[in-house]
Amino acid sequence: MTETKDLIIITASCGKNLELSEKFLEKSNELNISSEILDLTTLDIPLFNPRIHSKENIPNEIEELKKKLFEIERWVICAPEYNGSIPPILSNFIAWLSISGDDFRNLFNGQPIAIATFSGGIGLELLTSLRIQLVHLGSQVLGRQLLSSYSKPIDTKTIEDIIQRLLQMKKLKT
Asked: Which residues belong to any copy of the NADPH-dependent FMN reductase-like domain (predicted)?
């Protein structure tokens, strides 16, 4: 049986946001928090298309990841801003997760989530869009968020504070 993690860090980039995710992982390890990174760029998930896909033909990889995410108490999502919003790889992943089951909010309802970005631009549009989507799905999105860029370097004190705040949150029972 595998060890259940306390924290999963989901990254929607193989660049600066993967580096940001690794900083979250390093800090959580320093704090003795069992955590891991889920790098969406390493997955081979088809583009969700409602004309072709339904609840009856969900990829096995999505089913396995959904089970894993259900078991993990807290999440951090690190994503870049794409065209002023959520990157396609993350939107696609969320779409697949939300259709795999009878209740599209099931996985997200009451889930403590922190959001962070390293953006080539400002990054605020991504954080706002992602917060709106996650709240719509029923998640508890941590009030504090991390916004970093080339002109605003990653602050490890902020990462530690976000992790500490996230640890105080519990998944709400639905």
From this structure: 8-148
Q: Model pTM?
A: 0.94
Q: Cα 48 vs. chain centroid, distance in angstroms?
A: 18
The per-residue pLDDT for range 30-39, each reduced to its tens digit, is 999 999 999 9
Out of 2.40.50.140, 3.40.50.300, 3.30.930.10, 3.40.50.360, the CATH code matching 7-167 is 3.40.50.360
For 64-112, what is each residue's pLDDT tens digit? 999 999 999 999 999 999 999 999 999 999 999 988 877 778 899 999 9
What is the phi/psi pair of residue 16, to 5°? -65, -30
